[in-house]
User: Fold this.
Amino acid sequence: MSFNIWYTLITIAVVIAVLLGGGLYLVLLERKVSAWVQDRLGPNRVGMYGLIQPIADAFKLLFKEDVIPGRVDKVLFLAAPAIAVTTAMLAFAVVPFGRTTVPPDETYQFVIAPRVDIGIVFVFAVTSLTVYAILLSGWSSNNKFSFIGGLRSSAQLVSYEIPMGMSILGVVLMTGSLNLERIIENQAESWWNIFFQPLAFLIFMVSAFAECNRLPFDLPEAEQELVGGYHTEYSGLKFVFFYLGEYTHLVTTSFLFVILFFGGWHFPLIAPAGPGGAIVKLIVMSLKVSIFILFYLLIRWTIPRFRFDQLMGLAWKVLIPLALANLVCVMVVKQIGWTPWLLLPISIALLFASAGLTVAPRPSPRTAAHGL
Assistant:
């Protein structure tokens, strides 16, 4: 085999190993952050500071009895967790973990499939397939709670994919490319997109929380209402696959936050010179992603769960109109040739206008019925 094939295989093995191990320790991190927010200790028995707890949990679930209820559709029941973890991991094929533009005399790169011109489309296409895993698991379980979770998921994920996709179109227009590497390079050459597209970032962030089934948008698996929702009937390794897919999706969207809006591996005071500079860029990328992962975990204990009508209303009545208005503004500014900095006050104005319309007092149903 040539060097490039060996390099790609080693990179794939490292990424999968990090994702599998990272998924286990993200559970521990979430439990520790939850304990810190609630002023308690959290896991601290197995290993120093509970560091071996994820390994113990993994072995417990691995040797747990693999129960498949007799009333389920076995083919779809087994396919659902496999789809969940596979689609979540496939997105990393085009994620640039560090500097990927290689000078002629150097051979280093930090991406599995470099120079894929439709990288962002590939990520959205693959991650959107997650809805099939949740929907099939709810349907095949032949359980009312699971079925309701699957229905909620299909409506929620399909609805929030629309504002999520529309929010990045402004970034794509400003960059002139769908290539994730080129989007990072464009920000390294000028300014990070968060300064030009704060409204797009906010829309993308809210949609990402809904796509990952994270609080306050965890309606498909609301424990208080659905006893776990779509994965109520799952146990053992199949249950682990669902959680691994969910946490991998969390990491994927954190990478997208950093790549699309916060310059990826770029940091103003660090010059990417030589292999040493590339490793530093990889470290910068990892630190940025870690900040967004912590943000995910903190939000879980900050905002209460939405009602389903509020969830759908936020997508269709607020986020989609805002994303469309933001896209039109980007198109006008780019076509006329004005400075991109003009998008910052426009985004803030749109945000305040939408906030005013959202919180404006509405007549109660009783008052509206009487024409008062």
The chain has two domains: 1-63, 66-363.
